[in-house]
Amino acid sequence: MLCSLALVSGAAADDEPHPEAHREPRPRTNSEFHVRAERAPGNGANRRTLEGAPDAVDPGSHNADPRTALGDQVNAEAQTIDRTLATVSKKLAAANALRLRRLRAAYRILHAPLASDASDADRMVSARRRAAARLLLDRDSAERGLLAGEADRLRGAQLRAAAELTQLPTVSLPDTLAWPARGKVARHFGIYEHERSHATLSRRGVDLEVDDHAAASAPADGIVRYAGPMRGLDHGVILDHGDYFTVIAKLGELAIPVGTHVSSGDRIGRASRHRVYFEVRVKIGPGGLPIDPEPLLAR
């Protein structure tokens, strides 16, 4: 699972359009657990989603309580799922009504008597009408099947979101985390507007400005679950801390193998250049939910 998450965690660039900026998000399904870009650990800009709800909070709220932020994410996701399901259900009802009308029309066409003395041209016209009726029925059936399948996935997503809300109070979140590298926050977590394009963008972690090739270390005690390439983030490490993961990336050198138990402050590698990417992802739902790491960094 974690190898798949790592391969898709980073996007091709640090910042990508936030899904709600250009389309109605779609809920993910359980099958997306292994390949999600929506909630896979990484640099945080997700084109697909969900699926629906913003995976990052307003960047102005860096001091928001992590548990409150998680609740806001799950609630926003649930609301988006509800809206999307209402839209799909409406389309499905319309498709059912259209199919019923087409079935009646097709029945008349397919059972229309053909005169025994009909000409070859009349027989050809009748055959074409029958073929067209069957084609329309097959197309309507396929479209209805797609809508019905989408509605089923959305209902499953509703149940998942409800389960996530139930799970939230039991999740153990960190009070503080050590800085994964010496430096300062250069790019913040959350949703913001690009200065030049004015596109709405989303970032799921923070970028730290560090010295060239600065040492990177574990922000808390944990176990190395992945160490290797991450798309758009050079190399990185995923650490398992129990109820949450941390991702330390934009590394050029990795110092620890998978399975290693690390303590806070243990060296895990070096920055590939002058930035280190840091993400915290709570184990709620497929792929987890990202939270703002900045308020957790020890002052």
The helical percent reads 25-40%
Distance between the termini: 34 Å
- Number of domains as seen in the coordinates: 1
The total count of strands amounts to: 13
Uncertain regions: pLDDT < 50 for 5+ in a row?
16-60
What name does CATH use for the topology?
Glucose Permease (Domain IIA)
Chain-averaged pLDDT: 80
- Overall 3D shape: elongated
Look at the structure and name the CATH superfamily.
Glucose Permease (Domain IIA)
Supply the number of helical segments: 3
Radius of gyration: 26 Å
Order of helices and strands: HEHHEEEEEEEEEEEE
Structural class: alpha+beta
Q: What proportion strand? A: 15-25%
Largest sheet: 10 strands, antiparallel
Gross CATH architecture: Distorted Sandwich
Structural features:
elongated, alpha+beta, ten-stranded antiparallel sheet, 299 residues, single chain, Glucose Permease (Domain IIA), three-stranded antiparallel sheet
Annotate the secondary structure layout.
Layout: H1 2-9, E1 16-17, H2 66-110, H3 120-167, E2 183-187, E3 190-193, E4 200-203, E5 206-210, E6 215-217, E7 222-229, E8 235-240, E9 244-254, E10 261-262, E11 267-271, E12 275-282, E13 289-291
Helix pairs in contact: 2-3
